[in-house]
Predict the 3D structure of the following.
Amino acid sequence: MKGVGGCSSSSSSSSSLSVTEKVLTGLSNLIKLLPTGTVFVFQFLSPVLSNNGHCYTINKVLTAILLVLCGGSCAFSSFTDSYTDSKGKTHYVIATKSGVWPSPSSSDAAKVNVSSYKLKFADFVHASFAVIVFATLAVLDANTVGCFFPALQNSESTMLSVLPPVIGTVSGVLFAVFPSTRHGIGYASSSSSSTSDSNIAEKDPRKQTLLLPH
């Protein structure tokens, strides 16, 4: 009987470990879809500003400001890009209707195809989705939930299991329909992804998550 009980306990333990690994993998994949610096700032300041989820009025105000700024940063990064000049230096720019801002210097104008950096409909789609992904990350954050939605704390484990794979599936479809070729602020620069197609998944966090062809 002890053998049977031990086997059942071992099976339950391994099942629990498997679920935990899937949750952590899902969260990791979500984070890779967002600008690195923004995610770091949010994860660093969230417990401080929210008083570890035990919010007073001032904590709610400060945490709300953090959420808005980080969400805005995620959207803004979708409209940025980068190019490498003749000296090998990476320049970050903002996509516009006519090309980029600031414009490349006269010495780099011939090398940089400005028209390829123009603002596209896909940029707005990616910006909107980046905000949704960040909102998902915020909802999965115990401090944010404890501050604004304490009633959801009991269902947090369910959300951790359900939301990451759902968002991951949606992101896969989205990047297939609207593939991203930008390397903006917070993502891998264009210089780090110009080696070969076989290395793109390693160099670009967004493509590493989705494992889609470039």
Q: What stands out?
A: The beta strands are 80-84, 90-95, 100-101.
